[in-house]
Amino acid sequence: MKKITALSAFIVCCLTGFAKQKPVPQKPNVIIILMDDMGYGDLEDYGGMGYKTPNLTKLAKNGMRFTSFYSPQGTCTASRAALMTGTYPNRINMYGAFGPNAGIGLNPDEVTIAEMLKSVGYATAMIGKWHLGNEPEFLPTKQGFDEYLGLPYSNDMWPVSYDGKPLPPNNSKAKRTPPLPMLRIRAGQQIPDTAMIVRTLDDQAKLTTIYTEKAVDYIKKNKQKPFFLYLAHNMTHAPVAVSSKFKGKSEQGLYGDVMMEVDWSVQQIVETLKEQGIDQNTLIVFTSDNGPWLNFGDYNGTTGGLREGKGTSWEGGTREPCIMSWPKVIPKGVVSNKLMCSIDMLPTLAAATGAKLPPNKIDGVNMLPVLEGKDVSPRTTLYYYYHKNDLEAVRMGKWKLVFPHKYRSYEGVMPGQNGLPGPYNNGHIDSLALYDLRRDPGERYNVISLYPEKVAELQALAEKAREDLGDNLTKREGRNRRPAGVIAKK
User: Fold this and answer.
1) Of 353, 380, 407, which marks where a domain is finished?
2) Residue 405: other Cβ atoms inside 10 A
3) I need a labelling partner for 229 at 20 to 30 A (CA). Which of 86, 90, 142, 348 fits?
4) Is residue 392 located within the same domain as residue 326?
5) Which of the residues in the chain have pLDDT under 50?
6) Which domain range does residue 168 map to?
7) Do 20 and 60 meet the contact criterion of CB atoms below 8 Å apart?
8) Does the residue 79 lie in any domain?
């Protein structure tokens, strides 16, 4: 009897011990869908008109929709570098929109989201527009991705006019832009394969479908392990094009057709996740790299009433639509006005997956508590840099202080039509301006004379930025910037 009693006690003790152990959390799959030049007002839930985006609306109802989500800089290369590294792009000397064979790219010493997640067992893939250097030294497979399929830079960097006609050989753009390649490469492969050459607008019309089908195939093949999929569509960057599935389907015209195809693409991904039984523990992030290219008129998007657009530090250039869905974690149907930036994705994913943060300084903050539905505000400030290192504005809470600077403007000139661009105007702000973004998101009412104490706080924040990152507008070097990757000229 004693032996039986002792054995029973041992079993009870073991079972109690097992019961107290917390189960190891399953790492979430991560899918980041990044649009190109899609404006704050382009989704139906953000005011889009003349077309429907029901699948994105459903994604928002099953997750969280952000109203104060930002790109740190309103242009292609800079915004993508920021997303991938969790840093302000000027910290790592990434700026503007690099042209083909520029000899400059994201420094391989920088740690990307892909490299960080790969260190904790993730499969990684990138599909679509890269734009962080097109030379083999800078391609996604050198930055933590197992495989890549897509265009290495913007879809208008080709020897073709926006109307689809080939440029004459003596044209300056034709001389500096080679034929537009769709590259395919795997980790360890030194030179990429060319999957196709994009020569016509009909070729452009295939891109969204090609990327979507590749994404669906990747999800199916990697459902048994955690994966990170970075899907960066070339749409809605000019020239816009749409497949025959959606051509002529919207009231708005071609741009509306493109938005409907983007919505279809999201539907394919969500349905595939459900079919594979992995939708509950997959984090989907849907957002844009910067605001709309407004001088393309009816062939581009809308800021939803925000000031200016792509290529500026006004709200229309940097505030982006953003939807996140993760059924296992994110509460349904939440609209969040918490301040968040794309540089916050890296530390947020580190917290969600148990990965270590990069050893180099980053600027993002962990927003996982917000995704979990907690009423906290991890980010309270934001820097608006543009060009190589111009500090054009800073934000603290609802207040935005804008510094004197020149900028390209879409105001006071007529936009283009039918796919052709209109002209830019020359904008300039000659003195400090303070805007209350809660009451005035369109940045029309300078209230600087009413709130001198807020101006002082924001100027102190700007000095902190200048000391750390520098500021070309005030001729400050900054202490903590790092070099981009550069190929030595032969």
Assistant:
1) 380
2) 18
3) 90
4) no
5) 1-24
6) 29-380
7) no
8) yes
Predicted confidence (pLDDT) per residue in 84-111, tens digit: 999 999 999 999 999 999 999 999 999 9
Q: 81: which 2 tokens?
A: 């570098």
Residue 452: other Cβ atoms inside 10 A? 10
| Joined tokens for residue 442 | 């369109």
Q: Which DSSP helix (H) or strand (E) runs through 435?
A: strand 433-436
What six digits make up the tokens of 38?
A: 């899609």
CA nearest neighbour of 404 among 453, 459, 339? 459
Q: What is the DSSP string of 1-51?
A: -HHHHHHHHHHHHHHHHHHHSPPPPPPPEEEEEEESS--TT-SGGGT--SS
- List alpha helices for 113-241, DSSP H: 113-118, 172-176, 201-204, 207-221
Per the CB < 8 A criterion, the answer to whether 435 and 443 are in contact is yes
365 and 389 belong to one structural domain: no
- Cα torsion 162, 164, 166, 168 to 10°: value is -40
- Give alpha helix (H) positions in 289-366: 315-318, 345-353
* Same domain as 130, residue 70: yes
Q: Using alpha carbons, list the distances in angstroms from residue 462 to 138, 380, 472.
A: 32, 14, 13
Instruction: Decide which of 359, 380, 401 is a domain's last residue.
Output: 380
Domain match, 255 and 284 both: yes
Global pTM reads: 0.94
Amino acid in the structure at residue 26: Q
pLDDT digits (tens, 9 = 90+) for 153-208: 999 999 999 999 999 999 999 999 999 999 999 999 999 999 999 999 999 999 99
pLDDT at 488: 77
Same domain, 318 and 206: yes
Residue 196's contacts (CB-CB under 8 Å, 6 or more residues apart) are: 181, 182, 203
